[in-house]
Amino acid sequence: FLKQEGELLTIKEPVDPIYETAGIEVALDNGPAFLFENIKGYPEARSIGNVFSRMGRIAKLFGVVDSKQLKFKCLDALKHPIPPVVVDKAPCQEVVITFDVDINNTLPVLKTTERDGARVMGSGMVLFSEKYGRGGYEISFKRMNFRGYRGRDWASLTASPGTHGETILFKDYRNEDVPVTINICASPAVMLIAGAGLVHSIIPLGTDELAIAGGLEGSPIEICKAKTVDACSIAKAEWVIEGVITTERVWETEEAEKLGKANVAPFFPEWVGYLGRAWRSRKFQVTALTHRKDPIYYNWLADSYDGTQVGIPFRE
Do residues 28 and 50 touch, judged by C-beta distance below 8 A? Predict the structure, then answer.
């Protein structure tokens, strides 16, 4: 679709996920989507970004003429959800890795600025099953840092205050391990609902958010059983990290851990436009990494047109 619209810039020159990728995305903000085909240190990976950087392009993705019409299509999806369906064979599980999982050396996770505390994965959508979502599938973006200096198979996973994720992890199941999947680069409809930060009086916890995405897409979102945990994956995602959110609390960065204080050490340029601060979060323990045979990673900058506009249609 992007190629057809003349909205895709393919970059064949080598690009480094440390600083360089983010710098290019900032330079192209509100511009074409881009596909990096040559990522330094990741010979088998490609990455894409800026898909949502233009509202008109998002509208065309869903067959309407402009953003004013898109919000009404989102409203119709809220009123006429289509529940997800479970499939046995999924593209996201063409390759399954259950040992020696090393996220930072497998996925081109970005480091955006020199003062940022770590390489931060912001493009992972955490999918909570119906059991933990009060009867509905809950999906949302969460910031994660795979703490490479101790081992690359676990991460901090942060649920912001006031979100459904916070309710699940720090209220409903604060004393229990929670199995989840981290889904990367799913369909645009799934990404829109995951990025919406929905108004809880309209979409309370317990609502099936995948059904709303299905309503927007016009067909059921396909999900599949995870290979190593009691959870589901988005079947057509590019990458899926399976694991368990444990009851252990970990600091988001090494610097924050040494300080022993929250809201001091810099971490992750936030959607509000400035460098955020590291918190103490729950620990995500990886149990498996699955992906397509030729997977694409999603570059995500929270403070960008791409990171902001993914949430606008459903919020409106």
Answer: yes
**How many residues does this entry show for the chain?**
316
Quote the CA–CA distance of 121 and 297 in Å, as a whole number: 11
Provide the terminal-to-terminal Cα distance of the chain, rounded to the nearest Å.
25
The DSSP secondary-structure symbol of 173 reads T
DSSP class per residue in 127-169: EE-TTTTTTS-EEEE-EEEE-TTT-TTEEEEE--TTSHHHHII
Token code pair at residue 26: 């900032």
Q: What is the DSSP letter of 171?
A: I
For residues 257 and 248, give the distance between their C-alpha atoms in angstroms, rounded to a whole number. 14
Token pair belonging to 139: 């999906």
DSSP 8-class letter at 3: T
Pairing type for strands 85-86 and 222-225 reads parallel
pLDDT in tens, 34-77: 999 999 999 988 999 999 999 999 999 999 999 899 999 999 99
- Distance separating alpha carbons of residues 33 and 258, to the nearest angstrom: 39
**Residue the block writes with tokens 């391990």:** 177
Nearest to 52 by CA among 31, 75, 24, 21: 31
Quick one: pLDDT at residue 263? 94
Rounded-to-integer distance, Cα 22 and Cα 258, Å: 27
The single-letter code of the amino acid at 44 is E
Residue with tokens 């459904």: 164
The two tokens of residue 150 are 């101790």
What is the edge-to-edge ordering of all strands in the sheet holding 222-225? Answer: 85-86, 222-225, 232-234
Which portions of the chain are predicted below pLDDT 50?
none
Please give the Cα distance from 195 to 142 (Å, whole number): 10
Quick check: 119 and 145 in contact, CB under 8 A? yes
